[in-house]
Each structure stands twice: as structure tokens, then as C-alpha cells.
Design a protein that fits this description.
The protein is α+β, with helices and mostly antiparallel strands and 64 residues long. 14% of the residues lie in helices and 27% in strands. The chain has a 3-stranded antiparallel beta sheet with strand order 2-1-3. β1 (2-7) and β2 form a beta hairpin. The protein is elongated. It starts with a strand and ends in a 22-residue tail after the last strand.
């Protein structure tokens, strides 16, 4: 997500960290767009990568 600010008649754009996650709703998007310092918002969906949460080792069998 990129956010642009109007500073001294110049537009400055910054990109938010990809580690930040939040849900864009119609309500919070409208609130963000109404902010006087905001010049624009650019939102782009990114593909989620699957997480391999399997353990790399096998469970030990106890003899017994």
C-alpha cells in the first residue's frame, strides 16, 4: 500500500511495510481519504505465499 502526502505543494509518496497487515473497509478507506494531509492512496493486492509449517524432522519413536 502506498500513501501520498501533500507537503508544501509537493506530493510525497511512501510505501508501507509488507509486514503490516490490516483490512481495508469502505468505512476506514473513506476516513483515510478525507484526511487533509493525504494526497492519495494506491492499494495493490499481492499473492500470498504458502507457509511450510511442517517440521523438518521426523518424530522419534520410543522403544519400550
Amino acid at each position: 500500500m502506498n500513501i501520498s502526502f501533500l507537503v508544501e505543494e509537493q506530493i510525497i509518496e511512501t510505501q508501507t511495510a509488507q509486514s503490516l497487515t490490516f483490512t481495508i473497509t469502505q468505512t476506514n478507506f473513506k476516513k483515510l481519504r478525507r484526511h487533509t494531509a493525504l494526497a492519495g492512496v494506491r492499494i495493490e493486492a499481492v499473492d500470498l505465499k504458502p507457509v511450510n509449517d511442517r517440521r523438518p524432522w521426523k518424530k522419534r519413536q520410543r522403544s519400550g
